[in-house]
Amino acid sequence: MLKNDLAKRLKTRYPMIQAPMAGGITTPELVAAVSNAGGLGMIGAGYLTAAQTKEQIREIKQLTGNLFGINFFVPGGFEAANEKITAANDILNRIRKQLKVEAKAEIEVPDLHRVQNQFLAQVQVAVEEKVPVCSFTFGIPSGEVIERLKQNGILLIGTATTVDEAVEAEQAGMDMVVAQGSEAGGHRGNFLKDHEESMIGLMSLVPQVADNVRIPVIAAGGIMDGRGLAAALCLGAKGVQMGTAFLACKESGAHQAHKEAVLHAKEDELVLTRSFSGKWARGVKNAFISEMKPHEALFPDYPVQNALTQDIRKAAGKQNNREFMSLWSGQSPRLAKHQTAKALIDHVIKEAEETMGKMSQSL
Ligand SMILES: Cc1cc2nc3c(=O)[nH]c(=O)nc-3n(C[C@H](O)[C@H](O)[C@H](O)COP(=O)(O)O)c2cc1C
């Protein structure tokens, strides 16, 4: 049952994907450990340059002969009005003061053209390095990019938070689609409607997506163990993508304070914020999120706000100060364990098999 069509297409032992987590979390060690243990390891390349992307791919190739994948942020338009940026920066200067970080006077605004070129350069690296699987979030790449990757035999995975997004991903040529439930940690992948309308719980999302597309559906959001994998399969998914569970693993590059925050968090401490990046994302509530809440609707869009808060997040990391770091996590942190990626995968598979066995006996 677990060596299903999805696992066959991904050429993995199990239908389990380690979520790409941009920002240094998906280290080559983590990606390779997952692929070596029977899952699909994924690089979160969202914040990497093309050169860094190539370096990571090559490092992973040294650590595993198995397949792995890479994930890109699809660039979208963003508003960058000067008054908005200056107002946001003034508010952030208050936080900088608390952290003893120099106030920011010069603001370098990300330029859409540059962001798009960086994305295209990353795609070029994926083609040159023959990375077998590419996934996307925040939108669907152009027909040209899709065609190019497909011609090179690369398997494509889209991200959807609603049925319409999944249908659009299928129509654009994606081979599979991740259904990202509202439980999910990190950034929301919605691209058709705003975040509020796209907050569909996984239990509702997966069967409705499965009924409306022919491509395999991969469930993501709050899945941490074999019960979650079994439940996702029952709902019509062909596999799972797990982020927070892998973030807590030994090989993950998450900051120690981030891992600890997740390992000690309760399900009612996970909130959505757009204050860190300008895009809605789920993480453990801290002082930054609370203090910025009255202003968050006014902050500029991603990637502008992300660029504005970069020095704050960096300083907080250096100071081991969890109150000003982005502590992304899904809604099941009580199920997180600090263990190796292999131990996690082995446990998930064993528990899923037991759970499915018990279900068939009780029918
Ligand atoms: C720390 C963190 C970073 C993430 N970064 C990315 C990313 O770069 N690209 C992406 O497609 N999804 C990203 N996600 C979302 C995951 O793909 C997935 O939807 C989510 O982890 C599922 O929920 P879970 O964390 O409860 O397992 C991230 C999630 C987390 C927790």
TrEMBL record:
<dbReference type="GO" id="GO:0000166">
    <property type="term" value="F:nucleotide binding"/>
</dbReference>
<keyword id="KW-0560">Oxidoreductase</keyword>
<keyword id="KW-0288">FMN</keyword>
<keyword id="KW-0503">Monooxygenase</keyword>
<dbReference type="GO" id="GO:0009636">
    <property type="term" value="P:response to toxic substance"/>
</dbReference>
<dbReference type="Pfam" id="PF03060">
    <property type="entry name" value="NMO"/>
</dbReference>
<comment type="function">
    <text>Nitronate monooxygenase that uses molecular oxygen to catalyze the oxidative denitrification of alkyl nitronates. Acts on propionate 3-nitronate (P3N), the presumed physiological substrate. Probably functions in the detoxification of P3N, a metabolic poison produced by plants and fungi as a defense mechanism.</text>
</comment>
<keyword id="KW-0547">Nucleotide-binding</keyword>
<keyword id="KW-0216">Detoxification</keyword>
<protein>
    <recommendedName>
        <fullName>Probable nitronate monooxygenase</fullName>
    </recommendedName>
</protein>
<dbReference type="InterPro" id="IPR013785">
    <property type="entry name" value="Aldolase_TIM"/>
</dbReference>
<comment type="similarity">
    <text>Belongs to the nitronate monooxygenase family. NMO class I subfamily.</text>
</comment>
<dbReference type="GO" id="GO:0018580">
    <property type="term" value="F:nitronate monooxygenase activity"/>
</dbReference>
<dbReference type="InterPro" id="IPR004136">
    <property type="entry name" value="NMO"/>
</dbReference>
<keyword id="KW-0285">Flavoprotein</keyword>
